[in-house]
Amino acid sequence: MLHKLRGAGTAPARPSPAQIFIGLIGGIAGIGAIAYLTQLAGVPLLMAPFGATCVLLFAAPGAPLAQPRNVIGGHLIATLVGLAVMNIAGSGPWQMAAGVGLAIALMQVCRAIHPPAGANPIVVLAAGIQDWGFVLTPVLAGSVILVLIALLINNTGQQKNWPTYWV
């Protein structure tokens, strides 16, 4: 069993300087735009899991987990689960655990797995959010903004074609 801990392969190659630059610009543009729009509109559009979403969108845009269906759908599903658990059972360690587990299962059933969204039930339950409007702002609005920015950044340059799929 211990020999399995060392892994079977080698670490992936370092991304090209161009891909590293895209990750840098994407993270700045994505979170910067949401933070700026939050200030401008006076409506919360930013939440911590969006930072991890940016990692997938701009450092691994070809991954299935970084496609619009997964980003938007995963965030919506996981947040709805968190809100349902909060409104039915309240907040606590077991509710957080159940919320994350249920979110994972439902994202799988819906074919919209997005790992950063797994944190959404924790965000909802830890903050004691009961307002279903949280699904619209920040979750839906913020995830759509990130996907729109990814459309621009991930399609800049020759032979770029993102997303791989929508539905």
From TrEMBL:
InterPro entries: HPP (IPR007065), TM_HPP (IPR058581). Residues 13-163 form the HPP transmembrane region domain. The chain crosses the membrane at residues 20-38, 45-66, 72-89, 134-153. It comes from the Bacteria. Keywords: Membrane, Transmembrane, Transmembrane helix. This is HPP family protein. It comes from Marinobacter guineae.
